[in-house]
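Running this now, will post back.
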Amino acid sequence: MGGTETVSSAKRILAMLQCRADGDDERFYTIALQVAAAEARQGHRRVAEGIREAVDKARTHSGRGQTVAVPFAAPRGDLADLIELRSPSHRLADVVLSDKPRKQIEGLVREQERRDWLREHGKTPSRRVLLVGPPGSGKTMTAEALAGVLKLPLFVIRLEGLITRYLGETAAKLRLVFDESAKRRGVYLFDEFDAVGGHRGATNDVAEMRRVLNSFLQFMEEPNATDSVVAGATNYPDLLDRALLRRFDLVLRFSMPTDEQVRTIIKSYLRPMRYPRLAWKGIIEAGAGLSQSELARATEKAVKTAILDERNTIRTRDVVGALEERREMREAFIGAKGSR
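Update: finished.
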């Protein structure tokens, strides 16, 4: 083994020992797989395969019975005001999506699940995703489901804690968030992303927000050994700076549910009720134009009404009534906004 290889191996051993001291198992496994890749390049295939098998076994053992692969604690110190830890409760099967975004997400999951294999071949998995669509169309639910299927925690960035009026402070806080994503593997969600990624040339723009956006663009380009997923969700893609599109690996577009999706969403939330004779045509008409979130809330309201009435069967008028009530709430909200 040459001098350079010896130094590299020593550095990896030191880094692995530091990971163990810090309790950062995921980073420990990543470095171990880098050692495996180095051994494979030297023709030591059996050693490389042994290391990979040991890492797979260790990951399986440590993740058994847990909801996430690595038991991260809630953020502390300065990060406590910036990042909210959420335990994923939704599955991808719970999110009703069109074919294209579903295939995009499945591709992202595949790359993330086999990220070690990609890195051994000099490639990195897709990890930066932009979620675009109207309110309630399933963007946040999708981010949560993505974290769930990857067995990772979901970290939601608190914009009220991130964005301040003091010069340089927002960019400094962004730095903390991205440093955390490089240390702790997870799904980091920037909801209402247009607040950070707005046009640098917007008429209401100020120099500070231009600096914030420039910082965000720079941080997005930095390598990330943990392959944490950074997701931005926005209802207003037109407000985003065009330079952001080059930084994202995927742009997922969400839309309002089709008639068939309305039926699928309502059926998924009718449990544990029985619904033998529902008039689906009337229900679909009542639910047309409502978002996935609104359909779910209305259906849950109908189910709770049936439970309180001591019934185990749902009726068409239960569902239609709840949908119409939800529509009235939307119209009242829109009317209130329009009268300001």
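The CA atoms of residues 161 and 290 lie 31 Å apart. More later if anyone needs it.
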